[in-house]
Design goal:
The protein is of the alpha/beta class and about 375 residues long. It folds into 2 domains: about 10-45 and about 275-370, Aspartate Aminotransferase, domain 1 (Alpha-Beta Complex); about 50-270, Aspartate Aminotransferase, domain 2 (3-Layer(aba) Sandwich). It is built from 15 helices and 12 strands. It has helices spanning about 10-25, 70-80, 95-105, 120-130, 140-145, 170-180, 195, 205, 220, 240-250, 255-270, 270-295, 320-325, 340-345, 355-370; strands at about 90-95, 110-115, 135, 155, 165, 185-190, 215-220, 230-235, 310, 315, 330-335, 350. The protein has a 7-stranded mixed β-sheet, with helices on both faces. Helix 4 (about 120-130) links the parallel strand 2 (about 110-115) and strand 3. Helix 3 (about 95-105) packs across helix 10. The chain is globular. The relative contact order is 0.18. Bound molecules: pyridoxal-5'-phosphate. Pyridoxal-5'-phosphate binds near residues 95, 97, 161 and 189.
Length: about 375
């Protein structure tokens, strides 16, 4: 059989996960899984929430609309946009990744600019779809080439992956506005933001005033539901939204109804809201302690946090992937998050800081003692 090859490898995290699991089995020793991009302090406790769901209902056992269930889109409007958008601007999709992949294909732009250090899935998705890649270093560097960015797209994420850094909201808003007003498409992909914010956060409402912005979000991180594969895309452009629905209809025939009803319940019922608040409170408390520990121990790489603040769920440490692994800590080398700065990045690693603080400190202190 002839195969149309993409030339794209599977994500590095999967390989590292497999390696650590194998090492753990072979040695019988505990390993700390910091290579992953998921909140691992606690699971969201769904036990009270699922009691409200009728698994025998027609709602679950039928095809949902391509753009997503109306009830969920209303709940998203209420939760993220203060009820101020039109639900026709919201498309539910099978996680953040399919939203990104579809949005990249639909926006008719010359090329997409990614940050120099970025989540590898972006450029792999672009490679598979033959979309031209370009990169930018900072907001300053974008500001210098604004005219060139017309008919191009720029991807921004905050807090970002791999750095886990958070910019000042006004600074990032100004950047998005400048780009949007310039006719540059902005992919605002921030699935980590809502780990740290609740319904009172008005950032997405502010973005409604700007044209050419595509908000990409996911429930994988903020609700701890990476296994449910659910996210959403918001765009004010009706043609864009039509294309999103078409691509979902003819690629997956809609998005899992159970996952949609589960998230609806998390946003609209008392049991759901409590489960979400408990999950976020416990998660953020440990993230905060872990970042403080990394800073105080001199492990954090300050040069990446000059214009932004290490916030989570990741941080960059001045320890190589190899040394961390020798100390039974999983991580991903920073070199896997850049195409142009691989050599200088190899001495640093991205660790997930969304884990139990006692365990986190125990493993790093162990390493310190052996150095
Ligand atoms: C920056 C960023 N965007 C989007 C996603 C998409 O997440 P998912 O497809 O699990 O919803 C991830 C996942 O790791 C991510 O790191």
């Amino acid at each position: 059989m002839k195969i149309k090859k993409t030339g794209v490898a599977l994500p590095a995290i999967h390989e590292m996960g497999r390696k650590i699991q194998q090492l753990s089995m072979e040695t019988g020793q505990e390993y700390l899984f910091l290579q992953r991009g998921i909140n691992s302090v606690v699971n969201i406790d769904l036990s009270e929430v699922v009691k409200n769901i009728d698994f025998n209902s027609k709602d679950i056992q039928t095809y949902p609309p391509s753009q997503g269930r109306v009830e969920l889109r209303k709940a998203i409007n209420d939760e993220y946009f203060g009820g101020k958008t039109d639900i026709s601007c919201i498309t539910v999709c099978g996680g953040g990744m399919p939203g990104i992949d579809n949005a990249f294909q639909i926006a008719d732009v010359r090329k997409i600019y990614l940050p120099v250090y970025h989540w590898g899935n972006y450029h792999n998705a672009m490679k598979i779809r033959n979309i031209e890649y370009a990169e930018y270093d900072s907001f300053d560097s974008l500001n210098k080439i604004i005219p060139e960015l017309k008919n191009c797209a720029v991807l921004l994420g905050d807090p970002g992956n791999p750095f886990g850094n958070k910019y000042d909201d006004d600074a990032i808003f100004e950047m998005i506005k400048k780009l949007g007003d310039n006719g540059t498409v902005v992919f605002y992909d921030s699935p980590y933001r809502r780990v740290f914010y609740s319904k009172s956060d008005d950032f997405y409402i502010r973005l409604l005033d700007i044209d050419n912005v595509i908000v990409l979000d996911s429930f994988s991180k903020s609700l701890g539901l990476s296994g449910q594969r659910l996210g959403f895309v918001h765009c004010k452009n009706a043609e864009f939204n039509h294309e999103m629905a078409v691509r979902i209809a003819f690629a997956t025939n809609g998005t899992n109804a159970f996952a949609q009803i589960l998230v609806e319940n998390l946003f609209t019922t008392e049991a759901g809201k409590k489960a979400v608040t408990d999950f976020k409170t416990k998660t953020v408390a440990e993230i905060t302690k872990n970042i403080k520990y990394l800073k105080e121990s001199g492990f954090i790489v300050n040069e990446f946090y000059k214009e932004s603040v290490p916030t989570g769920i990741f941080a960059i440490v001045n320890i190589s992937e190899e040394e961390l692994l020798a100390n039974r800590i999983g991580s991903v080398s920073l070199s896997k998050f850049t195409l142009s700065r691989k050599q200088e990045a190899a001495k640093y690693s991205r660790v997930c800081v969304s884990v139990d603080n006692k365990k986190f400190v125990e493993f790093f202190e162990n390493m310190k003692a052996k150095r």
